[in-house]
Amino acid sequence: MDLGAALASGEPQVAVRGAALYVPRLARVAPAAAAEPVLDPDGTVLITGGTGMLGATVARHLVERHGVRHLVLAGRRGPEAEGAARLVAELGERGAEVSVVACDVTDRDAVAALLAAVPDAHPLTGVVHAARIFDAGVIGEMDQDRMARVFAPKATAVEHLDALTRELAPDLAAFILLSSASSVFLGAGTGGYAAANAYLDAVAHRRRAAGLPALSLAWGPWEPVGGQDTVTGEAVRNRAGRRGGVVPLTPTEGMELLDAALPTGEALVVPVKLDLRALRADAALGAGVAPLLRGLVRTGRKAARAGAGDSGGLARKLATLSPAEQETVLLELVQGQVATVLGHAGADQVRAETAFKDAGFDSLTSVELRNRLREATGLNLPATAVFDYPTPLALARYLHGRLAPDDQAGPTTHPLLAELSKLEALLADTAPDDATRSQVATRLQGLLTTWSTATATEQDADEDLDFASASDDELFELIDTEFGH
Ligand SMILES: NC(=O)c1ccc[n+]([C@@H]2O[C@H](COP(=O)([O-])OP(=O)(O)OC[C@H]3O[C@@H](n4cnc5c(N)ncnc54)[C@H](OP(=O)(O)O)[C@@H]3O)[C@@H](O)[C@H]2O)c1
Fold first, then answer.
1. Cα–Cα distance measured from residue 322 to residue 74, given in angstroms and rounded to the nearest whole number
2. Structural domain boundaries of the chain?
3. Which of 26, 160, 274, 401 has fewest C-beta within 10 Å?
């Protein structure tokens, strides 16, 4: 295993397993091999947050599509929640018996009482955990109280549901956690919320590993359902929409995806609607493709060559340009990213010398811009980049200083480096099968090892030579330095 290869890959996450390196990629869910879990119509399904937007949508779907007849909808407000009476009436007309219960699911005793109240005639066969409190904010703005507020209805509650259903609900066939894609790849600017959802995903894995039913659904953004919406939902949707390539789900699509996810046997499924064409177009414009999506969004030769979509390509492109041209390319890159983040139609709507704060940047969008530029350039940029370099031009010049080769006529023109650039381009444009990929990786690693060993040997030899040709004075000085008097 070569850690150098892991670092050189530019991947934000690499898992090391023995000699192999793994990187995360979203992949399409394989068609179901297992049978869809059947919810016994005589059993009861508990939905936490059941009077909320998605909770109510799932309740309707379970009654209509899965024949569920006994539902408990739990929320802190219980029957006082907006729309609760209407929902009970609607589900009642479809033959379901529904109780809406005031229960704070962060309270273990309250959850235990909720489960104990499920009648023996209709034992608990399903749990859908949809309770949440949303709080957007970058990690630096989070304090303990804000984290606790977001974590409690997700993480604390899921621990109670997990532990107590193990004891009190032996007939459980489905344990469904409504998580959010923020836990996987849309989390910028939602530090606490993203982490709380990742907690749900981890609990689903833990339960699966223990042989218990569990499915965490890391939803992308949703359209408002039946006039219901939350300010927070709005915030997520707008941010995601601006990002391009992520389209809000309608209730019908969401429930189709729920049904597709149930029989997969996976602990975590990410039901998100991606506009792959928009993502490819973004990539061609220099936005790059989030590493996690690279298995789904294939950028063609043209996009890769456009150079800005991958950081290696950008560096290669800059190496062929004059300093003035380099600055222009980087300014266009910054303007393009600013346009995407702010939802403008094009880079031409972004002025080079207008301050980011006057253009409408806040802390969330600043982090998003930083992330996108980090992705496009491969540079480790500070979160404060947008404040430190307050206009697109200033930021482009800063990137220029960090990216442009110092000596145009020097190292970049060495024949070895020129050949390496060609090899990089070839690798970027090729999508070999797994066996070839593995052979190529082994050869490259072998080359690197041989090269490093040869370089180290030459350096040792050089040092020996210096030592051998050193004067007496130099030798004594060395002995003094190394061993003192
Ligand atoms: N909407 C989206 O675009 C979207 C996208 C991705 C993922 N999701 C996920 O889908 C799930 C549902 O989202 P939503 O949009 O339906 O949210 P929502 O409309 O805000 O509903 C959340 C529900 O949780 C309940 N709740 C909050 N704290 C509770 C507590 N301590 N105990 C019991 N109930 C509690 C609320 O009822 P009370 O106020 O009465 O307690 C409310 O009914 C969430 O897990 C969310 O992360 C939603």
1. 64
2. 1-30, 34-274, 292-411, 432-483
3. 401
Which class is domain 34-274? Answer: alpha beta
- Collapsed DSSP state (helix, strand, coil) of residue 381: coil
Buried/exposed code over 87-103 (b: 16+ C-beta within 10 A; e: otherwise): bbebbeeeebebbbbeb
Tell how far the Cα of 53 is from the centroid of ligand 1, in angstroms.
Answer: 7
pLDDT tens for each residue of 368-400: 889 889 888 888 888 788 888 999 999 999 999
Average pLDDT for residues 59-66, to the nearest whole number?
Answer: 96
pLDDT of residue 83: 96
Let me know the angle formed at the C-alpha of 465 by 459 and 467, rounded to the nearest 5 degrees: 105
Average pLDDT for 267-291? 80
For the CA of 107, the nearest atom of ligand 1: 31
**pTM score, two decimals?**
0.71
Return the DSSP state at 97. E
Instruction: Give ligand 1 pocket residues (Cβ under 6 A).
Output: 48-49, 51-55, 74-77, 81, 104-106, 130-133, 153, 178, 180, 219, 221-222, 230, 233, 236
What is the CATH superfamily name and number for domain 292-411?
A: ACP-like (1.10.1200.10)
Q: Which amino acid is at 25?
A: R
CA 287, CA 289: separation in Å to the nearest integer? Answer: 7
CA of 75 to the centre of ligand 1 (A): 9
Q: What letters, b where the CB count within 10 A reaches 16 and e where it falls short, cover 9-44?
A: eebeeeeeeeeebeebebeeeeeeeeeebebbeebb
Query: Which atom of ligand 1 is found nearest the CA of 153?
Result: 31
CA of 92 to the centre of ligand 1 (A): 22
Atom from ligand 1 closest to the CA of residue 51: 43
The residue with tokens 């109240």 is 117
Ligand 1 centre distance from Cα of residue 83 (Å)? 14
Q: Compute the distance between CA of residue 283 and CA of residue 44 in angstroms, rounded to an integer.
A: 47
Distance 240 CA to ligand 1 centre (A): 18
pLDDT in tens, 413-432: 567 776 776 677 677 667 77
